[in-house]
């Protein structure tokens, strides 16, 4: 009885009670996020930061303890919850920078809710229970009033100082770590969030005036052709149509489920196109809008925030301006409101002459949060026909959306019957959504042919970003992926998207090109085909039709310092030495792997891109 009374005594102390509650939340976050998670680590890295907050409450506001403890509990719980949710999609640790995305959440609420596993909400259980007790229990409110006493200041001061020192000593050794997930694990999540708010940028300071194309090419290991490049002007004077496919991953090409072909139209297009099967996304926080930016500028996304928000006040050189200056009409098409992801500012910044959004496409035949891909393609091709009738070639971009996460397309759009084992899974929903998107793609191709545009148009098709986050998949869903791939689904599969280039009639050819490429390479590749010089356009990609090797700096979906080269995908650790290389064939770790030179060069290239874009003139 005496032991129980002592336990009860200590549990009535809010410092002890709320510490225990926070420990449970540390364990939940650690279990979801960190591999090889150890029992003691959350206590060593997480408790000191919590105790600093609790000591401040005890010392500075003893008469308002309960309200402040509840507030602190709610805030800290929300930080853990946000970290868990963000990691499940992006595989990174969210920081305050992501607050810029808050106004986008209502548009993608389906994606957010799909990531919610019921046990994640348990993290709020204590908070809800305590609020209910505060509202309905006189005894609980009496207990709260009884807390208005000062605990021993000397003891709390010592605990607070020691806890603060522990936080500093936990953070300090890992302040130079490149891998943000490693930093969060070693520092503790709350410590990391505070550190990230004040940490200096990992980018190098760059003298923008000294940046040259030759310097960029050298850092990438690219040697431009000495004479006329291969394929130069093969599609000169012809229309260029860029089709950006929502969440289209490369593993779908040629795949079937129980005899049902997933992407028959895409497969057929591969058979008449230049197909790049080792092609990778380079997007960041802005996902689809970032893909539009990278593809059209051949620059890299910012270290924090979406390019459409960070760079939309700039006069951005890129394909819309280059083609427009060479006599092309330019237009981009997107079925959502262009306000989404700040496209109303991004599109003028990129130099598009015209953009079409929800005002053209309306709410007709809605799939996800815009008109269906069928509507997008039907109304867009009508506009493209009008543009072609002017006698000038066009450069246009279509942004598909029907294959958007979480892939819950309406049943009227089902074009295939899922096997029972795939039903109700993210993998199954993804396959069905991409199968419908492929059906709509077939309608686009048919319409372009019917309007006489197909033979006179270079069609560039690629995926904007990954569709199946490896961090979101259950063990059952991973088994389904293994069934389709014949091996485990890895990061090298997740970030691998297709690129197809269908040349106009008379120049058309088809083959698979194994050259490593990324979205930043599309601009110089298309410019070469169109016979347009990029001598006045600083660019960070390279012409894939005149390349033998490549090096792709990566951001956001991989830790800082990560990159892809012909050796594989390098994922940084605290630095280069403890990083790991994933091979292309099976995603398994390969010995040796990438070079230190490419690691350093990748970081330099990202810093150069950041500095260059920031130095561009403001858009008038």
Automatic annotation (TrEMBL):
The chain crosses the membrane at residues 15-34, 40-61, 68-87, 119-143, 155-174. Belongs to the LTA synthase family. It is found in: Cell membrane. The lineage of its organism: Bacteria, Bacillati, Bacillota, Bacilli, Bacillales. It comes from the Bacteria. It is a multi-pass membrane protein. This is LTA synthase family protein. Keywords: Cell membrane, Membrane, Transmembrane, Transmembrane helix. Its main location: membrane. Residues 238-531 form the Sulfatase N-terminal domain. Pathway: Cell wall biogenesis; lipoteichoic acid biosynthesis. It comes from Cohnella hashimotonis. Coiled coil: none annotated. InterPro entries: Alkaline_phosphatase_core_sf, LtaS-like, OpgB/LTA_synthase_biosynth, Sulfatase_N. It holds the Pfam family Sulfatase. SUPFAM superfamilies: Alkaline phosphatase-like.
